[in-house]
Amino acid sequence: MRSMTGYGAASGHAGSCRLTVEVRSVNQRFLDLKLNTPREYGPFESDLRRIVSGAIERGRVEVHVSRALPPRSSGIALQKEVAAAYVKAYKQLQKEFGLTGQLDLALFAGRSDLFAASEPAADVAVEIVEVEKLLAKALAAHRKEREREGANLRRDMAERIRRLKATTKALDKAAAAVVPRLKARLEKRLGDLLAGATLDPTRLVHEAAVLADRADVHEELVRLRSHLSALEDLLRSDDPVAKRVDFVVQEVNRELNTIGSKAADLEVTNLVVSGKADVEKLREQIQNVE
Fold this sequence. Notes:
Ribosomal Protein S5, domain 2, rod-shaped, four-stranded mixed β-sheet, two-stranded antiparallel ribbon, 8 helices
């Protein structure tokens, strides 16, 4: 069992470029993946998404990739064609207007277009290979963190299931006493209504049988035990189980509701209320599980 909340990070180098990959996730019903990468990695975004979706099934996941380039000594290139055009223009200016003087470097002062800085291009193909390796490491750390938190969730949910099993046992005992109480209640009511009249024993037995049948929760208790056993099995699984657990918890809640409405008994009702409180806690916890 794994929590949907977690964090993992990894750093490395591709040449002189330092790369860092971070993975964060929080609760979300479905997989909602957001990638934050340098513009240069745009063509590789689908590959990164495939790697993440292969490791995480659901949750709001943010992947941040940063690259830090070291200071580079820029090369300066003389734009000879531009310089030649300036010289030609100055000579033409002298000739047309009869100007004197010598062409020297002072005439080129402040001409920024005569020079261009050049930097070696980054090898993005090499970088992305390292990014994918770092992403795998970050996802492994992220998974470990989610498993640690998932173990805590499993312990809490296992305790809730244990409490529900105890409640089921108490319900079984309480339900067995419901029918005799209903029969006694029926006899009293009929006695009050028909005071002094002769009661038909056959009708009394029939009415008691109908009430007993309506109050019989044996099948619901059998299903309830089955659902709780299924939950215990799911908690032992290493696969993503949140959706299946959520479904079974809903079935547990449905059986408790049915038992409460059929039994119509104060003791049973109190036990059902107690059980539903544990079910609600299970439903809250399952929202944190992948």
